[in-house]
Amino acid sequence: MHELSIAMGMIDELTRIARENNARKVITVKLKIGKMSGIVIDSLQFAFDAAKLEYPLLNSTAIFIEEVPLIYECNNCKNTFKTDDIYFPSCPGCKSYNLKILSGEELHIENLEVEV
Asked: Most-buried pick from 38, 42, 63, 89 (CB within 10 A)?
């Protein structure tokens, strides 16, 4: 379950940001996670909720996760399209497999709210 190590890295980063901003606690954090990132969102949520209890700055933090859709651009016909097919999608316009990923691999903290 690599989601636990991701949650721990996130906790380290949130703690660093909170301390740099003299925050007393982190109230909310919003993440953007791409559909093709390989992260199981429910597992990350569970891991974060369990691990945060050991950190006074984070023990009441609410986490909100936005899943970023998988969007490709076809290198042949330049068609841009969204798909749920993460395994060998083809362009709906020309059926080519020569694609470039535009979004869907993200994993980052979008924003957070702190109490100072």
From this structure: 63
